[in-house]
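Bug #77: duplicate submission created two jobs. Keeping one. Sequence:
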Amino acid sequence: MITLMLFSGCETVQIFDYPAKKQVQERAAAKQTKQTKQTAVKSVPQNTAGLSQKQKQLVEAAYWAKGKKSLSVNGKKYNFDCSGVVGAIFQKAGIDITQDYSKYKGGGVQRIHETLRNKGLIYRPSLPAPGDILFWDNTYDANRNGRADDTLSHIGMVVSSNKKTGETVYVHHHYKKGIVFETMNLYHPNDPAYNSAMRQSGLKKLPGNKYLSSQLYRDAGKAYLLK
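Kept job's structure:
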């Protein structure tokens, strides 16, 4: 038996008979919920029904890349950053998304976006498809001016999506964790229970305190259709 002491004004109110067993059950339930969520991200089912062969290869390449400390494909070593990771995954599936880099200015994310935009492969679905490249804005203060004007600051790729629940699992390079799978859900864009944090911690808050993957999501690209 546990005695809880509650304070109301100048009085101390004793509440007896709060069962210790209930506390144990609540802690266990919370722990199980956390473990279930972590396991779901780690073991996303590779349900590739209805996908093209290239999309299937990209999903397989995402699992190949997950957790690696460095990436090399056909003897070429890729930068260990967001665009480098996505570039390596696509190269593993036989697609060179850097093919038009020389035509554009900016970093890897900007060049990939321009490549896809000029080929008509950029769109903004509410449920991105496996193999889609995801683009985000304002994930960090890229130009170091303290403002929310950092467009095309991050990139990742969809591993799976669930039409019923809206859950999208994507692979990307996390600035602290490395190559990981995380989640986004555009059906529930403002709920941290459905969306991984995307904006780097410690930075100035954005208008509306936007920091989730769904809130910073810009658009997507069908790079698996590149020739």
